[in-house]
Design brief:
The protein has 162 residues and is mainly alpha-helical. 78% of the residues lie in helices and 0% in strands. It is built from five helices and no strands. The N and C termini lie far apart (58 Å). The model has no long low-confidence stretch (mean pLDDT 92).
Length: 162
């Protein structure tokens, strides 16, 4: 199981690097540079990039879900009764659903989500902020480790009478 644990962890972290890194690159490098293009070449570039990036996003979300569920199932037994761990992991999962939604909406074709694509810069900032929060939670949970169980109170055989 150790090899599968390692592969799952590598897939999870590697996927985060590619997708979050791609989002940061898009927001901070590609979009500002593309603004300098005339309208038609800008539109063509945006369509070409979105078409290719869509595949990465869809595969990445799948890899995140599969590796995340595997990692969770493997770790859960070690954290029974650890309320902080469960709260942080629950928060991380909810934030991840938000990231998945935004990533899919930004590369999607749904007319109903066109307002998100029109405000791409704003929603990429939100996506990146959520991803940074997920990374912070993940880092804390990993460094925090597994807390020791609380000491069991000593049983007093007699009664205290006064």
């Amino acid at each position: 199981m150790e090899i599968l644990d390692t592969v799952s962890r590598i897939v999870h972290v590697g996927t985060a690097i590619v997708l979050v890194g791609g989002s940061v690159f898009t927001l901070m490098v590609l979009m500002p540079a593309a603004k300098k293009l005339p309208d038609e070449p800008h539109r063509q570039l945006a369509e070409a990039i979105t078409g290719r990036w869509r595949r990465f996003v869809h595969l990445g979300v799948l890899l995140f879900i599969v590796s995340g569920v595997y990692n969770y199932v493997r770790a859960i037994a070690s954290h029974q009764g650890d309320a902080l761990y469960h709260a942080l992991l629950g928060m991380k999962m909810l934030l991840a659903l938000g990231v998945f939604f935004l990533a899919a909406a930004l590369v999607g074709r749904s007319a109903r989500l066109e307002p998100i694509r029109r405000a791409r810069c704003t929603w990429l900032k939100v996506l990146i902020a959520l991803a940074a929060l997920i990374v912070a939670i993940s880092g804390y949970v990993k460094v925090r480790g597994i807390p020791s169980p609380p000491p069991v109170a000593a049983q007093d055989g007699g009664s205290a009478r006064g």
